[in-house]
Amino acid sequence: MIYVKLEGHDYKYQVEDVIRMFFYNEDIIYADTSPINFGGIFILSRVEEGEKIYIELWREGLKAYYAESKLGVICDDGNEHIKSHRYKKKIKMELKRQLYLAFEFITGKSMPWGILTGIRPAKIVHEMLDMKFSRNFISEKLKNYYMVKEEKAGVLLEVAGKERSILNATPPDAVSIYIGIPFCTTRCLYCSFTSNPIDRSSDIVKNYIDALLYEMEKTAAIIADKGWSVQSIYIGGGTPTSIDEESLKKLLFGVESTFRMDGLQEFTLEAGRPDSLNVEKLGIIKSSRVDRISINPQSMNDEVLEAIGRNHTAKDIEWAFMKARETGFDNINMDIIAGLPGETLSMFKASLERITQLSPDSLTVHTLSFKRGSKLIEDKNNRTCIDNRCIEDMAGVAADYASTMNMKPYYLYRQKNILGNLENIGYSTKGHESIYNIQIMEEKQPIIAMGAGAVTKMVFPEENRIERVFNVKSVTEYINRTDEMIARKESIIFG
Ligand code: SF4
C-alpha cells in the first residue's frame, strides 16, 4: 500500500506513473492527513506554483527523504505564465523527476527509461532535432534531465535518425491505410486485440468482408476527394490469414481495385500464425500487391507456445517461414516476446538462435506487457513471472542477435505495465524498415482505418493536435453499422 497526499496540485496521473515504475502491484491510496499516522510508504508532494516543488517520503511514520526544487519562470508574460501549457508541462515533468529521485533513493533501483513514461519516447528527440539541438546536447539532456540510461539514449537517437530519413522523404499529401481483420485461430494469453476465434466465426466472415469492401470503397472516395496519395497499407487484426482462401483473395484484390496504388511504397499483411497459413494462401498473397509479411513465432519453445495458447509448434513456424521464402517473399518480419511465462533466459536465447537460422528481414522484439482485456492480466500470479534483471538480459540478448543478423533498431515504443519498464523495438536489415510502423509511431501523417475495432487518426500539425475516430469492435455491430463508421470518418476528415 502506498499512501499519497497532494498539496497545491492534482497531478495524480504523473504521480501514479512514477509510483507504478517502482511498485507495480501496490495499491495507491490518497490520504489527507499527517504521514506520522501511517505505516508503509507515504508520499507528500506539494507544488507552489511559480515557486517550488517539495517532496517528502515517509516510511513507517518516519521521514526518510526530503527534496525541494525551484521552478524557473519560462514565460515572460507576468503571472500568465502560471496558466500556460508549457509551464504546466514543466511542473509535471519536474514533479516526476523529484518523485523518481525519491524512489531511486529509497529503493536503490533506477529505471532504463528514467522519467520517460510515454508510449513514444522518440518524439522528444524529434522535437529537439527540429529545434536544431546537436546529438550530443540531446544525449546529455536524455541522460541528465530525463534520467534515461546511456544505452537507451543511444538507441533512441539511432531510431530517431532512421525514422527521419523515412519521415523526411514522405510526400506531404501521403496517408497510410489500416485494415482490420478481427479473426484469429486461437486467442493468445496476452492478446488485447479485437480478435474472434475463426472456428466460431466462419459463417460471418463473408458478410464481414462484404461490409469491409463497402467501407473501403466509400473511404477510397474520401481519400480521392482530399487529393491524398496512399503511402503504405497495413492489414492486421487479429490474423488476416485466418480467413478462408476465397475471402482472402476477395479482400486483397478488393484493396488493389479500390485504392489508388500509384504512390504505394509498402503493403504489409500480418500472417502471424503459422496455423493460419497454407501453400494456397501464400500463393494468393504473393499474386497480390502485398510485399511485406509478418510470421510471428513469439517463442520457438513448444511448451511456451502451448502455455500462451498458440495452437502450433516451433516446427510449424519454420515450415511457414521456409514456404514463404520459397513462394518468393523477400521481406519477412518476425515478432518475439521477452518475458513470456515459463520462458527462461536460455530458452529465449534458443528461440533467437532458431530465428537467426531462418534469417528474417526484420525482427520486432516485444517485452511482455499486461494489457486490459487480456487473459494474462486476469491471473495475478502471472504478473511476477520474471524479474527485472532477467528481462533486461533478454532485451540485451535480442539486441545482440539482431546485430548478428545485420539489423539495426528503426522504431520503438513503450507500453503501460510492461515488464522491467522496458520497450518494444523493431530491428531491420537495411531497406526493410517498415514505413507503416514508423508512421503510426511518430504521428506525422493521417492513418485512415477500416474494419471492426479500427482507429482512424487525423493529425493537425499546425495545431499540434491529433484526433481519433473509433470503429465499433463487435463484428456484428460493425456489419450492421458500416454506414455510421463511414460517416464518423468523413466528419473527422472533412472537419
Ligand atoms: S495472434 Fe495476435 S491477434 Fe491473434 S490472438 Fe494472438 S496476439 Fe491476438
Explain this structure.
This protein starts with a strand and ends with a helix. The mean pLDDT is 92. By secondary structure, it is of the alpha/beta class. It has helices at 12-22, 85-107, 122-130, 135-144, 150-167, 202-226, 245-258, 279-286, 302-307, 314-327, 345-358, 375-378, 388-404, 435-442, 475-480, 482-493, and strands at 2-7, 28-30, 41-48, 52-59, 62-70, 174-181, 183-184, 196-197, 229-237, 266-270, 292-294, 332-338, 362-367, 408-413, 424-428, 447-450, 455-460, 465-470. It has 16 helices and 18 strands. Helix 1 (12-22) runs parallel beside helix 2 (85-107) and helix 4 (135-144) packs across helix 5 (150-167). It folds into two domains: 1-109, 3-Layer(aba) Sandwich (Rossmann fold); 170-488, tm_1862 like domain (pyruvate-formate lyase- activating enzyme, Alpha-Beta Horseshoe), CATH 3.80.30. The radius of gyration is 24 Å and the shape is globular. Helices cover 40% and strands 21% of the residues. A hairpin with a 3-residue loop joins strand 3 and strand 4 (52-59). Strands 14-15-13-12-11-10-9-6-16 form a nine-stranded mixed β-sheet, sandwiched between helices. A five-stranded mixed β-sheet has the order 2-1-3-4-5, covered by helices on one side. Strands 7-8 form a two-stranded parallel sheet.
